[in-house]
Amino acid sequence: MVSVLEPLDKYGNDQPFELWLNDFDDFVLANFGTVNEDRKRAILMQLCGEEVKKYVDSMEPQEKANYPQLVKTLKEKFSHIANEIVERHIFNTMMQEEEELIDSFVLRLRTQARKCNYKIPSTTVTVTIEGVNHPIAIQYEDITENLIRDRIVVGISSQTIKTRLLREK
Questions:
Q1: What is the pLDDT of residues 136-151, one digit of tens each?
Q2: CA distance 97 to 105
Q3: What does DSSP assign to residue 116?
């Protein structure tokens, strides 16, 4: 064996199933090369862990009939659906850690911000003037970059850089 893969049930709820599945695909390719779907399903069942095996055993036969169907069913069960409020709380309380480089802090902020859904959708409002409807498109910008900038200013540990950032427009 060339690499090691943690069982899915040991992976943790904070890790998306898709990430584990990508690691699984890499593991299979590195250790077994190209395999057919039946063998890939068998390998998945050996590596998924006891709790996932119990779940698969309880599934209807059509939900686990073949590899693509099994993966689809597991995605429905194990895909991490981010709680927007929790993800935004994490983002809005992030601070630069001691000895952390500014680039690393910004990368952590960007990674977390992607989970926050800070994109405000465009909308169209209809205004009626003298009995005639006039649709008006209202465009909102993606505020993610502005929020990252604000979080850098609040969360950076260097007072010198913070002061300089506060002077900039």
A1: 766 666 788 889 999 9
A2: 8
A3: S
